[in-house]
Amino acid sequence: MPMIIHFSHSQLQSLPILSRAVAGCSNHNSVGEIAARETLEQVMADALSKCGSKRSSVRAVCLAVSGVNHPTDQQRILSWLRDIFPSNVRLYVQNDAVAALASGTIGKLHGCVLIAGTGTIAYGFTEDGREARAAGAGPVLGDWGSGYGISAQALTAVIEAHDGRGPSTMLTSSILQTLGLSSAEELIGWTYADPSWARIAALVPVVVSCAEAGDEVANKILLKSAQELASSVKAVVGRLGLCGQDEKGAFPLVMVGGVLEANTKWDVGKEVIKCISKYFPRVLPIRPKVEPAVGAAWLAWNFFMKEYNKELCSR
Amino acid sequence: MPMIIHFSHSQLQSLPILSRAVAGCSNHNSVGEIAARETLEQVMADALSKCGSKRSSVRAVCLAVSGVNHPTDQQRILSWLRDIFPSNVRLYVQNDAVAALASGTIGKLHGCVLIAGTGTIAYGFTEDGREARAAGAGPVLGDWGSGYGISAQALTAVIEAHDGRGPSTMLTSSILQTLGLSSAEELIGWTYADPSWARIAALVPVVVSCAEAGDEVANKILLKSAQELASSVKAVVGRLGLCGQDEKGAFPLVMVGGVLEANTKWDVGKEVIKCISKYFPRVLPIRPKVEPAVGAAWLAWNFFMKEYNKELCSR
C-alpha cells in the first residue's frame, strides 16, 4: 500500500501521512507482469488522488514490492516508473523486506528484518551498505517457516494421521471444522481447488490454538518453523558480520508479519528470538509500530536527501 | 492411455492388444473437469478408431485415472461414461494406482502397489476386497517421496546452500547447468514461471547422479524419500493386515514409476524394499513387465467375467 507523505525534517517523527491506498497482489511472479504493473499504477494514482496531489508534485518514489529478487526485476520496475513520473522524480525500487526493515529503524538501513506472513524472508544491511538475504524463495523452494509452510505441514500431518503414517492429532478435527469438511480425504480436493498460498496460510491460527491446547504435533510444527525462521536470520547476520567478529555485538532485528505477532500462549516470535539469542545474545528485537509502507516512505525521504545533499556539496 | 483389448480365456497371457492411444493429463483436479472429460473422450475415441471398432462393440470399460480420491469422483466419471457408451456396456472407474497394481498381478486385486513418478501413492487390496491407500494427496499435502518431492528438496538444498543455511552441494552446479541458469537466485523466477509438478520432477535424474557421485546432500534426500515411500507401504499393509497377524506373511508389492526404476548405482526402488523388509521380511517385490493400461484392461475383463458368471448362475 503506497503512502503519500510530505516530510520536513522536524516532522519526521510525527509522520505527516497525506493519504493511503490499498491494492491486491503486485508480485509479478505470482500475477504476471501486466497485472502487477496495472495494480501498481492504479494504487499510486489512488494515493495521489486521495490527497488531491498530482504526479508533478512528487519528489521521490520508493516502491518496495515483493518479487524483486534480482537486479533485472529492479530494472524492469524502474523502467515502468520512468514511463509514469516526470524525469526529475527520484525513483527507488526495493524488495518489500527493505521497507519492512526501515519501518522498524525509522528509515535507517542497518540490521536485519525477518518477515513471516504468507511467505517469509530475512534481509539485512550493514552500515556501509552491504546487503544479504535468506529464504523468500517461495513454497517450492522451502520457505518452511512461513505461514504457508506452517499450514502445509499441518495439513500434511492430518493426511499422515489419516493414512496411519503419523500420530493422531487435534489438527484433524480443528482444520476440518474450520474448512467445513467432513473427512481428511476431502482436503485433497480442497487444496487442488485453489492453490493460493494465502488461503493455505490462513490456517496458522488453527495450528497455534492446537499447540496452545497441548497438541504435540502442532507444537512440533511451530517449534520447527521457529528454528527455520531463526536459521534464515542466522545466515544473514553471519554473512554480513552484523554483530562483529566475536558474534557478541548488538544489532536490530525487525520482526514483521502475522506469524510473528504475539499470541496468548504459543508465541512464534518469542520462540524465534529464543533460538537466535543462542547464537547472538545481543539481538535487539523490534516490533515496528508503523506499517512497512511508512518504512518505504522513510526510505524515499532518506535516499532523496542523500542525493540532494551530494548535489548541494558538488555545486 | 487406453487400450482396446479383445480377450478370450486362452489369450489372457498373450495380451491381444488391438490398439493403443496416448493423451495428456486427465486429472480433473489439475486441469479442470471440462478439459479432463474432453481428454478422456478423445483418447477413447482414438483407441477405438485405431482398431476400426465402434462403441457398440465394446463390452466393458475400466477407466483407471488419477484424481479418483473419493466416491463422488468415481460417480462423476461414471456418469460421463454413461453418456458416451450404450447402456449394456459395463463401466468401472478406479484410481490409476489400482490399474498399476493389476499390471503386476495379472489383474488380481491383491497386495500393494507403490507408484512414485511425478506424484506418489500406495494402494492395497485384500483378497476379500478391503482396500486402503496412503499418500497420493499432492505436493501441498506432503508427498515427499514423489519425483516432485525429491526435486523440490534438491532445489531447496540449492537455495539453502546459497543462503548459507545449509551445506554446499554438487546439486547447485548440476541443477543450474541442467536448467541453463547462472545463479541460484534465478531458480526463484524459474519455479514461479511454470509451477507444473512434472517440470520440477524431471530433475530426479540430476539428484540421482549427484548422489551416485558421492554428494552427501543428494544422498540424504534420496534416503529420506525412500523412507517416506516405505512408510506409505507400511501404512497400507498394516491397515489391511496384508501379511497376517504376525506380520510375517508374504504379499506382492508392485512397484511402478520413474523414481523406482533401477539406476546404475543409487537405486531408490532397492532402498525402498530394504526399508520395507525391516517390517515385512516376506515382501515380494514385482516390477511389472506391462504398462498400467494393460492392468486396467485386465481389470475390465475380470470385473466383467465376475458379473457375467453371477448372472449365468442366477438364471
TrEMBL record, chains A, B:
Annotated ATPase BadF/BadG/BcrA/BcrD type domain residues: 17-300
Keyword terms, alphabetized: Kinase, Transferase
InterPro entries reported in the protein's UniProt record: ATPase_BadF, ATPase_NBD, Euk-type_GlcNAc_Kinase
A GO molecular function held by the record: N-acetylglucosamine kinase activity
UniProt source species: Medicago truncatula
Family named by the database record: Belongs to the eukaryotic-type N-acetylglucosamine kinase family.
Enzyme class: transferase
Pfam families recorded: BcrAD_BadFG
EC number: 2.7.1.59
UniProt xrefs under CDD domains: ASKHA_NBD_DdNAGK-like (cd24081)
Protein's recorded name: N-acetyl-D-glucosamine kinase
